[in-house]
Specification:
The complex is a heterodimer of chains A (112) and B (114). By secondary structure, chain A is an all-beta fold. Chain A contains no helices and eleven strands. In chain A, strands 2, 4, 5, 9, 10 and 11 form a six-stranded mixed β-sheet that branches. Chain A has a five-stranded antiparallel β-sheet with strand order 1-3-8-7-6, with no helix packed on it. Chain A is globular. With 114 residues, chain B is an all-beta fold.
Chain lengths: 112, 114
């Protein structure tokens, strides 16, 4: 079946450094991709999205890169702050279906 | 409130019992999703409603799970004959029209089956 995986379960970074979280997906027909942040005891919160007709999208301190050739996307967080500590999920959507497939998540720990 | 709300926030039940979990979506959102999140995992799709109808229920694990949305707003996820393996956080999300519209998640209901 369709799968979405992440390369690292935990990522520790120094405050102020940049963070990169990766995600691989299996369905080449997938055309919409979202990164979510989930803090303890809360539901996932939308961070940034990208559609398959783009390969890069920037937000405030965050950038998502999409490589459709190798079915890989990444989330870059600039100048990581303590408030960025959370679990980050990628989610993949394929038009014509109704479901989002989530990855297993990467826990980001920001070290002071 | 303006966000998605879910009740109860925590539910402890005994194996074999019946439970209902409620989701109040954002007003006006026609699309509603239920997900299940086990510890250390990402949310797993269960069912998607567009209005009152279940457009995709392919994620429901078996016939003990059922969900309704009779008036196109509030939804209830019903689990019969609960098993210990049903223990998880059940998340609800809504979006304006579905598809690739942004989903807004509720805080979830933590279900523990003893």
């Amino acid at each position: 079946g369709e799968s979405v995986g992440l390369h690292l379960p935990t990522l520790s970074v120094q405050e102020g450094d940049n963070s990169i979280i990766n995600c691989a997906y299996s369905n080449s027909a997938s055309d919409y991709f979202i990164w979510y942040k989930q803090e303890s005891g809360k539901g996932p919160q939308f961070i940034i999205d990208i559609r398959s007709n783009m390969d890069k999208r920037q937000g405030q301190r965050v950038t998502v890169l999409l490589n459709k050739t190798v079915k890989h996307l990444s989330l870059q967080i600039a100048a990581t702050q303590p408030g960025d500590s959370a679990v980050y999920f990628c989610a993949v959507y394929t038009s014509g279906t109704y479901k989002y497939i989530f990855g297993t998540g990467t826990r980001l720990k920001v070290l002071a | 409130g303006a966000g998605v709300s879910q009740t109860p926030s925590n539910k402890v039940t005994e194996k074999g019992k019946y439970v209902e979990l409620r989701c109040d979506p954002i007003s006006g959102h026609t699309a509603l999703y239920w997900y299940r999140q086990s510890l250390g995992q990402g949310p797993e799709f269960l069912i998607y409603f567009q209005g009152t109808g279940a457009a995709d229920d392919s994620g429901l694990p078996n016939d003990r799970f059922f969900a309704v949305r009779p008036e196109g707003s509030v939804s209830t996820l019903k689990i019969q004959r609960t098993e210990r393996g049903d223990s998880a956080v059940y998340l609800c999300a809504s979006s304006g029209t579905g598809g690739s519209d942004e989903q807004f998640f509720g805080p979830g209901t933590r279900l523990t089956v003893l």
